[in-house]
């Protein structure tokens, strides 16, 4: 067993930029080992000279053929080896003791030394591992000189008591100990460490293997000399041993291949599962993660060098990693520019390609010489959709025969695992990027912004969260399509990114953006917000048209004026949103958060969350405002109006809570509640002999609900009420919000006999155009026109026109907002059908409305022999 140094090159550093940077070698360690190698060589030469001078040289011409045979024996022993790597020294378990003891028994020292040097140095050169010739030559000289000297000394001392072969046996064993000792010394010089106990165990094992090999050589020698045809028997035994060794070697190789494959698979699996270490969703190329994998491949294939070329950068640039001996300068200089033109890297398919200098065309030979290699295996790392890189394996060290089929199979399998790991890493990076970024603009999304801002705030930095909203986006989307609206969002994001110069920017939703301003005062944040609003308010050229836009912004600081720092990102975003809403309701486009704003929106939040409970506990009531037919002044019905008596805030105006209820989707419950109260009241009047209708207001959500007419029909049937006594009032804006869905609902309600009225008529943008298309029965003149009739001739003209238009379309006309006798008389003169307003009565609770009916009306019989109520005055 000998300890020859097979690969003592320094560990390479990695290059991350282009052009690649050549790895550096530790100069101090190189100088130390060079000095140690020279000392070993000097010791070997000196020992050889002394041994040659001491031992007599006996030349026999009939044994001249033994020199070449002995050289072949040493060479064969060098090739039939088992290689084990310990730290950075390659331990070689070989059969050199067999030819050595034969040399001690048959040839002079000089012949044995020449045969050993010729075989050993020739093998080193053949392996292209002649970088440490001085060290290896010195050890080879000592491996021959010391055993010959020891054998001669032992035989002289024990010439009368020991057999002649005893001295050569002892000398052969010293050769193994010399190799082991110098290998441990080389390990120490190179900075490795081995405990004394481990070194002792290694020496014992070395002696055991040496004794076995020595015994085999001695027995073979004796059999060949003393037994007829003994040389044939020895040859047969040698062939059997070589065959057994080959089988054992192949078995060991398969086991090591499986271990390597397992190690590499586990390593690349960890790399594939590891999250990138930069920002939300940013994948960072980490070439150093693959260094152990490259080194493991090099060790298993027993190669001088492994080169990994990996596309880890999203831009597609190639990073190069070298394990083993460094690449020549020419290869580093050509690496970044000649990848596509390099004949070794033209990799169709996914198979391993083998190149040898003696068999390759000129361009391949040139590429190999540029790498300083004689042989190379190259395999692509091909992912599901693209080429991810390549693996190059240069020059097998341990055998002359080069890389074999087992090496090719192993490299192909390893490349498949590497490609899978890289694909997984890229997929995870993409998933992480998508999780933290907006797909439309490429900016951070809400989640990414929250994580990034939370990281900065945890560092103790003062920050201002700025929210900027792009207005008129809905109008653009409705008029031009959502594609054009998306283009405006992308353009707005690009404008703000350019203005911010690297400050974190996120798209929260629709046309809403968020900015994190680090180490900014509120005054500076206000200035930035003002500038951003002006930037996104500039006109947007969309194809052949130019769209105007507006911006509104709000901000909140993590260090408010009261001195209490707020480091919660969600709270800052919420405060910035409150400031934006305050800006929308004011004349300023930029507002900073103030605690008073929070109280307003807290109240709105409480109203929304408490509304359902208010319906269940009777806080919400229905009031009725009577409607009177003109000119008879008979009470024909009432409008149901909702009122909320809040236990904390008192009586609430419907304009405060109804829009909130509509926005949160609770309007269906409110409409059902009012309709149920109205039907109960109608049923009571019918039982009392009165036939009066009740009007209920509908919202946009009711008109978009295809199941709403079914619920109305069920309620009318349950209370046994004629459908014409129930009136639904709707606004033009609610119908036109989604006419394709609302018109079918209105037609179904109209078909079942429910009265439909257009509320606030005259204020819509398309009253005349759509009035004939709507299945309605009456129109209600907006009270703003009725109130202005006494002072504005224009309002009077509008009211007169609406009355005439309604009658021409066979629609009943209701005027709301009648507050004086003059307005009532004018409406009677115009032929208006029904009046409603404070002149008649304010909205009253159910009990007060019943009292009002009893006190202000008288019973009579109508034209249809029905009981009617008429105002007393």
Textual characterization of the structure:
InterPro entries: Cyclic-di-GMP_PDE-like, EAL_dom, EAL_sf, GAF, GAF-like_dom_sf, GGDEF_dom, Nucleotide_cyclase, Rev_trsase/Diguanyl_cyclase. The protein has 873 residues and is of the alpha/beta class. It folds into four domains: 199 residues, Arp2/3 complex 21 kDa subunit ARPC3, CATH 1.10.1760; 163 residues, Beta-Lactamase; 148 residues, 2-Layer Sandwich (Alpha-Beta Plaits); 249 residues, TIM Barrel (Alpha-Beta Barrel). The protein contains 29 helices and 25 strands. The strands form five sheets. An eight-stranded mixed barrel has the order 15-16-18-19-20-21-22-23, surrounded by four helices. Strand 20, helix 25 and strand 21 form a beta-alpha-beta unit. It is rod-shaped, with a radius of gyration of 49 Å.
Report the C-alpha radius of gyration, rounded.
49 Å
Number of strands: 25
Mean pLDDT: 80
CATH superfamily of the largest domain: EAL domain
Morphology? rod-shaped
What percent of residues are in strands? 15-25%
- Cross-sheet strand order for the largest sheet: 15-16-18-19-20-21-22-23
Structural class: alpha/beta
Tell me the domain tally.
4
Low-confidence regions: 1-25, 84-90, 275-279, 281-285
Count the DSSP helices. 29
Could you give the distance between the termini? Answer: 129 Å
What's the level 1 CATH class of the largest domain? Alpha Beta
InterPro entries: Cyclic-di-GMP_PDE-like, EAL_dom, EAL_sf, GAF, GAF-like_dom_sf, GGDEF_dom, Nucleotide_cyclase, Rev_trsase/Diguanyl_cyclase
Transmembrane segments: 33-56, 100-121, 133-153, 165-190, 229-248
Domain GGDEF: 461-595
Domain EAL: 604-857
């Amino acid at each position: 067993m000998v300890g020859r140094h097979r690969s003592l090159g320094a560990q390479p550093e990695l290059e991350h930029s282009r052009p690649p940077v050549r790895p550096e070698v530790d100069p101090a360690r190189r100088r130390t080992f060079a000095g140690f190698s020279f000392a070993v060589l000097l010791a070997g030469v000196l020992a050889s000279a002394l041994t040659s001078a001491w031992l007599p040289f006996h030349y026999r011409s009939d044994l001249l053929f033994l020199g070449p045979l002995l050289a072949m024996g040493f060479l064969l022993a060098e090739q039939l080896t088992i290689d084990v790597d310990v730290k950075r020294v390659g331990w070689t378990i070989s059969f050199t003791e067999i030819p050595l003891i034969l040399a001690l028994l048959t040839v002079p020292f000089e012949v044995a030394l020449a045969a050993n040097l010729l075989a050993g140095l020739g093998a080193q050169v053949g392996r292209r591992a002649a970088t440490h010739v001085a060290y290896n030559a010195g050890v080879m000289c000592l491996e021959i000189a010391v055993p010959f000297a020891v054998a001669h000394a032992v035989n002289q001392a024990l010439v009368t008591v020991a057999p002649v072969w005893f001295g050569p046996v002892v000398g052969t064993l010293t050769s193994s100990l010399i190799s082991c000792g110098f290998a441990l010394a080389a390990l120490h010089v190179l900075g490795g460490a081995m405990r004394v106990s481990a070194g002792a165990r290694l020496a014992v094992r070395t002696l055991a293997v040496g004794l076995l090999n020595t015994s085999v050589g001695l027995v073979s020698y004796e059999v060949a000399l003393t037994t007829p045809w003994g040389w044939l028997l020895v040859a047969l035994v040698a062939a059997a041993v070589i065959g057994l060794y080959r089988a054992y070697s192949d078995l060991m190789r398969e086991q090591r291949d499986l271990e390597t494959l397992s190690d590499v698979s586990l390593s690349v699996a960890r790399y594939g599962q590891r999250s990138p270490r930069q920002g939300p969703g940013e994948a960072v190329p980490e070439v150093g993660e693959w260094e152990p994998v490259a080194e493991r491949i090099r060790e298993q294939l027993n190669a001088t060098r492994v080169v990994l070329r990996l596309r880890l950068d999203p831009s597609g640039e190639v990073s190069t990693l070298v394990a083993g001996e460094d690449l020549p300068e020419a290869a580093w200089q050509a690496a970044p520019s000649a990848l596509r033109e390099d004949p070794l890297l033209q990799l169709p398919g996914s198979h391993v390609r083998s190149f040898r200098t003696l068999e390759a065309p000129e361009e391949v030979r040139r590429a190999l010489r540029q790498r300083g290699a004689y042989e190379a295996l190259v395999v692509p790392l091909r992912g599901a959709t693209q080429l991810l890189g390549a693996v190059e394996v240069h020059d097998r060290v341990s055998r002359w025969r080069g890389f074999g089929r087992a090496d090719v199979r192993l490299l192909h399998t390893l490349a498949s695992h590497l490609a899978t790991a890289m694909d997984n890493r890229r997929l995870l990076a993409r998933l992480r990027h998508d999780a933290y970024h907006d797909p439309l603009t490429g900016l951070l999304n809400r989640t990414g912004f929250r994580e990034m801002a939370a990281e900065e705030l945890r560092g103790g930095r003062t920050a201002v969260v700025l929210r900027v909203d792009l207005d008129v986006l809905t109008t653009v989307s409705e008029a031009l399509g959502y594609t054009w609206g998306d283009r405006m969002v992308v353009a707005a994001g690009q404008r703000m990114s350019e203005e911010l110069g690297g400050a974190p920017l996120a798209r929260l939703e629709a046309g809403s953006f968020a900015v994190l301003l680090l180490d900014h005062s509120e005054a500076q944040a206000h200035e930035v917000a003002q500038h951003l609003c002006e930037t996104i308010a500039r006109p947007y050229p969309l194809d052949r048209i130019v769209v105007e836009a507006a911006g509104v912004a709000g901000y909140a600081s993590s260090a408010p004026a009261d001195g209490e720092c707020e480091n919660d990102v969600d709270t800052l975003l919420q405060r910035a949103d409150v400031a934006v809403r305050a800006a929308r309701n004011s004349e300023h486009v930029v507002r900073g958060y103030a605690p008073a704003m929070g109280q307003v929106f807290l109240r709105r939040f409480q109203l929304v969350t408490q509304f359902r409970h208010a319906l269940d506990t009777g806080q919400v009531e229905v009031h009725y405002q009577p409607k009177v037919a003109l000119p008879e002044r008979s009470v024909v019905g009432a409008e149901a109006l909702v009122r909320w008596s809040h236990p904390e805030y008192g009586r609430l105006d419907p304009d405060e809570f109804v829009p909130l209820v509509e926005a949160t989707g609770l309007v269906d419950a409110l409409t059902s509640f009012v309709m149920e109260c109205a039907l109960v009241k109608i049923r009571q009047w019918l039982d009392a002999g009165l036939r009066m209708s009740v009007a209920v207001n509908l919202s946009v959500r009711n008109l978009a609900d295809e199941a709403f007419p079914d619920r109305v029909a069920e309620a009318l049937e349950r209370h046994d009420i004629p459908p014409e006594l129930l009136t639904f009032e709707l606004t033009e804006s609610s119908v036109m919000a989604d006419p394709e869905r609302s018109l079918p609902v209105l037609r179904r309600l109209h078909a079942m006999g429910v009265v439909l009225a257009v509320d606030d008529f005259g204020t819509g943008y398309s009253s005349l155009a759509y009035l004939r298309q709507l299945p309605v029965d009456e129109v209600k003149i907006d009270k703003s026109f009725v109130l202005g009739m006494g002072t504005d001739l224009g309002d009077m003209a509008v009211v007169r026109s609406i009355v005439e238009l309604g009658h021409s379309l066979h629609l009943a006309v209701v005027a709301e907002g009648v507050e004086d006798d003059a307005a009532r008389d004018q409406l009677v003169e115009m032929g208006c059908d029904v009046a409603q307003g404070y002149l008649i009565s304010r909205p009253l609770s159910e009990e007060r409305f019943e009292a009002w009916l009893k006190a202000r009306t008288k019973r009579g019989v109508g034209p249809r022999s029905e009981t009617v109520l008429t105002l007393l005055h």
